[in-house]
Every structure is written in C-alpha cells, then in structure tokens.
Specification:
It contains 8 helices and no strands. The chain is mainly alpha-helical and 221 residues long. It has one domain.
Length: 221
C-alpha cells in the first residue's frame, strides 16, 4: 500500500495512511507532521477567508444601489481571471466525464477511482486523477484571487464562481479525508450563497423588466 501511495504523489492525503502513523515517535516524522499540518491549516484558513469574501460580496450586492462601479483596470483583471477559470472548468469537466461522472456524483466517482488505483494502479487512471487534482488546485487559485475583488459589481461572474466552488468543495472532501467535515460544511455554505444569489438575480431581472415596461409606456404617452 505504501508503494502505491508513493506512486500517487500528492493525490492522497498522507494523514489518512496508518503506515505513517506507526513512525509518529520518530523526530523526522514529527517534523513532517508539523510542516504538513501547517500547510493544511493555512489552506483551511485561506478557504474560510475566501468564503467570507464571497459572503460579503453578496451582502454588498443585496444593498447596493448600482451594479456598476469597478474601475476598468480591475474589470480587466476580473475578466481575465474569469476566462482562465472557465477554461480550467471546461478541461476539468472533460476529464471528469472520462471517468463517467455526472455533476451530482463527481466526488463519489473520484472516491471509487481512488480506491481502484490503490488496489490496482493503472497509468491512465492515475494520470487522469492527477490532472483532475491539478486542475482543481488551479481553479481554487483563481477563486481565491477573484474573491479579493468587488464581485458585487459583476454578479454573473460571482454566480459562476460560487457554482464552481460548490463542486470543488464536494470533491476536496474526498482528496483530504481528515478535513472532510470542513469541506462538507464549506459546500453547504456555498450552496446557501448560491441560493441567496439566485434569488437576488431573479429580483434584479424582475426589476429590469418592470423598468423596461415603464420606459415603453412613457414613450407611448
């Protein structure tokens, strides 16, 4: 099993491997735990900060009078990052389709694939899984960066990012089992944000339709 995990690189969270726990008393493993644990805690902290940024963006969108306002430089960066995220998402979807997934079962299919590779590693399956993990990491980077901008001025971008974050949170709980509860909770919170944003976008569409009709009536008069 240890040999298989070494072949998998960083696909598996080594905290979940009992073979490493056997050497806990040795200083080199304690040092490894310290470094790896620090990295994981930093990532969880970043995930939480990112979520709170999106939570704040939706609050700002709810109470903002105008949905235009970010300067052109920031807008260019947002659109560039959004384009990169869409490109990565397209590649991610293509790969997950290769392992026979549907949107609601991405995490479960990946879990099954991981178990299959642990028992009988195959080069093709391993490459696909590594690429899925890599693309997921790259998407998270863009999601983290976008969260620092005024996305309440770009509700459609905000909507797309939150939808992707929901899917990635669900998959992340499979890749990092010791933190599965954290990512399950993160997914639930992103789903809540998605529902709130959907309601706000619906109300915005209704108001725009009313405004359009009002203008048409004014022209006729």
């Amino acid at each position: 099993m240890t040999k298989n995990m070494n072949n998998l690189g960083d696909i598996y969270d080594l905290f979940s491997s009992s073979s490493f726990l056997e050497y806990e008393a040795e200083s080199k493993y304690l040092e490894w735990y310290s470094v790896e644990g620090s990295k994981r805690l930093s990532e969880l902290s970043r995930q939480l900060r990112t979520f709170l940024n999106y939570r704040s963006a939706i609050i700002q969108l709810r109470f903002s009078i105008s949905q235009t306002g970010s300067d052109s430089f920031k807008k260019d960066i947002i659109l560039k990052r959004n384009s990169e995220l869409l490109s990565l998402s397209s590649r991610y979807t293509t790969l997950t389709n290769k392992v026979g997934v549907e949107e609601l079962s991405v995490a479960e299919k990946i879990r099954i694939l991981m178990q299959k590779i642990k028992i009988q590693p195959k080069h093709l399956d391993l490459d696909i899984l590594k690429e899925i993990k890599y693309l997921g990491n790259e998407m998270w980077k863009n999601i983290h960066i976008l969260s620092e901008f005024d996305l309440h001025f770009h509700p459609q971008v905000l909507n797309m990012v939150i939808k992707i974050a929901c899917i990635l949170s669900n998959v992340e709980r499979i890749f990092f089992l010791p933190f599965s509860k954290f990512y399950c909770e993160l997914k639930r919170n992103y789903l809540q944000l998605e529902r709130e944003l959907s309601g706000l976008l619906f109300l915005t569409d209704v108001e725009q339709v009313k405004l359009k009709k009002k203008k048409q009536v004014g022209i006729l008069e």
